[in-house]
Amino acid sequence: MRLVGDNVEVGVYPIKEALSIAASQGLDLVEISPNADLPICKVVDYSKFKYEQKKKQKAIDSKAQKTVVKEIRFGPNTDEHDFNFKLKHAIKFLGDNAKVKVAVHFRGRTIAFKERGELLLLKFAQALEEYGKVEHLPQMEGRRMMVTISPKLVKK
After folding, report:
1. Could you tell me how far CA 116 lies from the centroid of its own chain?
2. Contact between 42 and 5 (Cβ < 8 Å)
3. Are residues 75 and 130 located together in one domain of the fold?
4. Distance set, CA 114 to CA 30, 39, 94 (Å)
5. How many domains, in total, are found in the chain?
6. Do 49 and 89 have their domain in common?
7. pTM score over 0.70
8. In the chain, count of helices (H) and strands (E)?
9. 36-91 pLDDT per residue, tens
10. CATH number at residue 137
11. Element (H, E) at 27
């Protein structure tokens, strides 16, 4: 195996010799790259090694972009004013780079008006065409019909 680390002469050593070098320094032998032609091991304090790995992972996670999903709910008999009011909210959400999940909730006997709900969702998606793109066409999930709209990438 290839041995690396502080206060260690970098080179190829047999396993027993690498373990004895690590033990003589009061440190641990940690396998860094097991899939290499020669496995790479490092002489290091294991608890400190784990701490630094956790710290690096936390830094990577904090830089990752988190997707926010905002939900807008309608009924199948939603009027024009309410439609426009919720449309303005959806435009703001897409401007803030959040996904928008638009749902028509059918209560009781309104389940008979599935076509009306689908038309409402398609009209909503068409109104948001310049701000976002539809991920999938309207689909039923229980008593709800949903569409997800993701923001368009703005080129700077």
Report:
1. 33
2. yes
3. yes
4. 61, 61, 26
5. 2
6. no
7. no
8. 4, 9
9. 888 899 999 999 989 999 999 998 888 877 788 999 999 888 889 999 999 999 99
10. 3.30.110.10
11. none
